[in-house]
Give the backbone structure.
Amino acid sequence: MAPKFRKLLCLSATLCVLLCTSSAIGSEGEALLKWKDTLLNSTSLSSWSRANPTCSWVGIVCDEATGYVNELDVPCSDLSGMLDAFSFATFRHLEIIDLSFNNLFGAIPTNITLLVTLTILYLDSNDLVGAIPYQLTKLTKIRVLGLRYNQLTNPDAANFSVSPSLQNLFLCGNKLTGTFPLFILKHTFVGLQKLHLSRNALSGLIPENLQDIAPNLLHLDLSSNMFSGHIPRSVSKLTKLYLLYLAENNFTGGIPAELRNISGLGHLDLSRNMFSGGIPKDLGELAILHDLNLSWNMFSGEILKELGNLTALGTMDLSWNMLSGSLPRFFSRMQYMLSFDVANNLHLGGNILLEEFSNWTYVMLFNIANNTFTESINPDFCQISTLEDLDLSDNLLSGLFPGCLWNLDWLVYMDFSRNAFFGDVPTSTVDTSSLEYVHLSNNNFTGFFMDAIKSSNRLLSLDLGGNKFSGTIPTWIGISFPLIRILLLRSNIFHGSIPW
Ligand SMILES: *[C@@H]1O[C@H](CO)[C@@H](O)[C@H](O)[C@H]1NC(C)=O
Ligand SMILES: *[C@@H]1O[C@H](CO)[C@@H](O)[C@H](O)[C@H]1NC(C)=O
Ligand SMILES: *[C@@H]1O[C@H](CO)[C@@H](O)[C@H](O)[C@H]1NC(C)=O
Ligand SMILES: *[C@@H]1O[C@H](CO)[C@@H](O)[C@H](O)[C@H]1NC(C)=O
Ligand SMILES: *[C@@H]1O[C@H](CO)[C@@H](O)[C@H](O)[C@H]1NC(C)=O
Ligand SMILES: *[C@@H]1O[C@H](CO)[C@@H](O)[C@H](O)[C@H]1NC(C)=O
Ligand SMILES: *[C@@H]1O[C@H](CO)[C@@H](O)[C@H](O)[C@H]1NC(C)=O
Ligand SMILES: *[C@@H]1O[C@H](CO)[C@@H](O)[C@H](O)[C@H]1NC(C)=O
Ligand SMILES: *[C@@H]1O[C@H](CO)[C@@H](O)[C@H](O)[C@H]1NC(C)=O
Ligand SMILES: *[C@@H]1O[C@H](CO)[C@@H](O)[C@H](O)[C@H]1NC(C)=O
């Protein structure tokens, strides 16, 4: 055996004796205990004691070969205290820290820069204050920086230049102010994939040249800030985008037709802005779009038939706009729909042909309230057996109440109020215990159907007012509806007394 190799073997043997046997609590363990001692609540760290080897402590993962601490993983553990006493210098092999969802307060110590091997840092949902330390930028291997939901302020932009290794930057729910962060605009981040800046107080425009800075972005979340201006056409050059969230800002203008170029877009949320104009037919080309939320804007015009090509949609929320015209028949092809909301547009209308939607085998929410839809409900509609929320209120719907609706096992919310339905509501003896809200007010319903809801023992609200229901109010309603908070029977031909 070559002498050099033997020497090496020896050395590593000595090293192992030192690390593995001489003391269960090495310098890393001592440093962790020292930090634990400064915490106000460390109840969840009871295994951190000299009686146990460091690598067996809760939340500690060591490298099997070297015995060094690789991971510090104690999220959601009621840890209360500061990071100041954490001896970052001691840890030369730490790759992952997850201390999110604790009660850590104070600033992020600048010494964190000493963790040169760190790749993932999660400090989300604590009470950390102060500027995001620019020293974080010295972490040359950092891939994920999660600092969401703290009270952090802008970093020293001049000295902050995120490492090119960074892939995911999560800064939602802090106190960032000013324009789109300069420290991001300074460099090109070929590796940056997820940029989440929602719930801060950022303002100004979306930069025109984002595609030069982060050409490979998958997520761009700017929601709940005070950004304004138009969506730049150049956003469509972020061709890898999967998620684009711009909700709750002050954006104006229309949706650029060029967005169709982002062929892999899965989630688009533009809700609660001041967008206007028509919904471009080009959006229909987003073949894998799963969530579309355009609610609470001023979009107008018709819903074009091309949108019927969005066959991968799971949620479509177009509520609270100024859309008009009718729903394109092609909508029935969106067979993976879970949640469909076009309420409060006032002028959407025409013949709704509800049976067209019987292909929607997964839909849970169907809301067309506050429009001018006409026509009656075809019993085919009851084939949507997954329905939980059905809101047809404030329309011009007429015809009979389809008794098959009582058979929907998951239906919680049923609102037919303020339409022109008429006739006897069929009674039934099936189990209707899922129902919590039954609102049939201001129609021309007749008859006596109460037995149908006798098993609705979770009922919270029953509004039958303004119809022509008749019969004796049954004494069992006091027993059958133990949770009821609202009972409106006014303007009917009921008699008897309310049994409470
Ligand atoms: C301290 O942490 C423990 C365990 O997580 C928790 O049950 C307890 O409520 C916490 N005490 C205080 C005062 O926060
Ligand atoms: C932080 O680093 C400085 C110098 O680099 C050192 O003096 C100080 O003791 C360190 N603090 C902690 C808590 O490790
Ligand atoms: C930040 O950078 C500027 C020059 O770019 C330098 O003068 C200043 O000292 C730096 N700030 C700190 C805290 O290092
Ligand atoms: C949105 O813009 C309008 C006028 O352009 C302004 O009055 C309003 O304060 C802005 N709102 C926010 C949250 O920035
Ligand atoms: C993007 O859209 C524009 C205009 O709609 C079009 O001219 C251009 O060819 C598209 N670019 C790509 C890369 O598809
Ligand atoms: C769409 O956005 C609005 C407002 O931001 C929100 O209240 C609503 O829940 C969203 N719709 C869906 C289906 O998530
Ligand atoms: C739907 O897409 C197909 C191509 O996939 C296209 O031929 C058709 O015109 C589109 N339909 C509508 C209504 O835009
Ligand atoms: C229901 O879906 C099938 C294919 O899944 C399709 O052939 C049929 O036309 C659809 N029905 C309606 C009313 O769109
Ligand atoms: C109906 O929609 C209009 C327009 O969006 C809105 O102003 C009104 O408050 C809505 N009515 C109800 C009952 O929600
Ligand atoms: C109920 O019927 C009466 C008489 O047929 C009609 O005048 C009234 O407009 C109807 N009410 C509703 C809400 O449809």
Summary: The pocket of 2-acetamido-2-deoxy-beta-D-glucopyranose (ligand 8) is lined by residues 332-333, 335, 356, 359 (CB under 6 Å). The CA atoms of residues 90 and 151 lie 28 Å apart. Confidence is low (pLDDT under 50) at residues 1-23. Residues 414-500 form a domain with the Leucine-rich repeat, LRR (right-handed beta-alpha superhelix) fold (CATH 3.80.10.10).
